[in-house]
Structures are given as structure tokens and as C-alpha cells.
Task: structure prediction
Amino acid sequence: MTTRGATDLSGILCVDKPAGMTSHDVVAGVRRITGERRVGHAGTLDPMATGVLVVLVGPATRLAPYLTSEDKLYSARVVFGSATDTDDAEGQVITTLPVPQEVADNGFATGKVESLVGTFEQTPPAYSAIKLAGKKAYDLARAGKEVNIAPRTVSILDARLDGIVEGPPVVWNLTVRVSKGFYVRSLARDLGVSLGTAAHLVGLRRLASGKLTTSNARTLDILEDADDVGEKFIPAREVLEIDAMSVSDAIAEKVSSGMQLPSLLVDDDQAGPFAVVARGRVIAIYARSEHSLVPEAVFPGGIT
Result:
């Protein structure tokens, strides 16, 4: 395919990440495919995980703050009887414990999974990209240093048991819809502890991130073979989880110059920020100030 210029493309891709690649590997692949230097992602996936990874290309990388708050849907496999230092199958086994008989009972497991729904404090894995004193937690953990990450408030919005492998080892297949900042690895670890045994994550697939699902996702091979990768962009106005306001060409011209807009263009009960849309393209993000709407990001060429 023809290599595109560094400022030629701007849009959102939904990539089906394969196992074994980091999110950064996927970003590097999209850079190579598009010829666009400015590529980023919203919502990291661990190397073991597969599924929906939102990738932002060109000026659309500035949309990242407006895409990271959505809930996410996962299909997960949790194995009982052993824990690892990374809380998933990528790590080294650090604990093995007997598994209570009830863990292999479908009725018990169903009730336990359904009871997970709610808001609570969760401690992220030691092997995570969270920064502590300027250093990533996983770098500290790999260096053998003590890692103390403060718990954070997260939510499980929905949870269901999809099946049990009675084993040994016992494996639960479950689907969970979770809030921003949730670690499914931590869920696996904590499930083991709560059941008087040990557990870790052995499989994870992200089925949805906000409005994007696996039905929207394309593999890197498909993007590689596309005559025009821009045709694979997901319309930004359909993805952004913020209010949108459509404007006339006259107002769009003011927006392209970064001018403030009268607040009467939006309803009083809308807090913002707002995606400004002209002719079907997102041309800016605006926020409320005391008496007007002010630009937070402007996209002169617009984003599909």
C-alpha cells in the first residue's frame, strides 16, 4: 500500500490485538502500516490478552482523554490452586494451595460470580504500568524491590459465570463488565484469596471498550492489506462518550480559529465537554467556562 504522510491521516481504529503482543507493539505496527508517526492507544491490554484495543492515528491522538473513561467488557479464565507473581499465566508460580471442593460446584460458583457486582477497593498487580515515584511498578518488581500500590475504587457492573472446568485444576470461565482502572488479574488473585485458595488469570479477551466491540475490530493483517486504511476508521462521533453539538459552516469557521462560542449553543443541563461536529466530522472538543464555551482541542481538518 502507499505510505501516507505524517499529517495525512486522522482517525480511530479498533484493532483486534493478538496474544503475545504488547499494546505498544500494536501501535508500532499501525505506525508502520500507515506511515503516520503520531499513533497512540486508549486502554492498555497485557501481552497475554486479546481483543479490542482502541488505536488513535494522527491528530486523533488528542482524543485519548475522552476515550479512557468507558466501561469495558471481558471474557476471562481463572484457574484455581496456584498464584503467580504477575497474577496471570505470564508469571512464575509463587504459591500452591488446595482447592475447596465447593469451588468446582456450578451452583456455588454462579452465586459467587454474581455476588461480585458492586463498587469496592482493588489493589492493582505489582507487575503493572502504574508509576511509583516516577518509575513503573513492573520495573521495580522485576528488580526485586518492594512494590506498594494504593488500592483504588473500581466497580464490577455485571458478572456472569459461563462455565466450569472441574479439573484438576478447576477453571472458571466468566464474563465481566468493569469500570475504568479495573484489573482482571487482580480479580483472579482476589477470587482465590476469598475462597481460601490461590488463583490466577489464564485467559483474557476484551470484548468491548465503551461503544467499540469485537464486531468493529480488525486484525493488523487486515489493516496491512487494506488499499486505504483510512476506510477502516471508526467515526469519532459514534465512539466519543461525551455530548455532541452539530454546528453550521459559519460557526465551524469560528471553531477552526479557536474562537470561544456562546454557551446558549448547548442546553443548560449539559456539563460538557462537547464534541463539535460539522458535516459529520469532529472538528473540536469544547468545554464550559463561566460565560462561554472554550476550545480544549481543535482539529482543523476534522476527524472522520
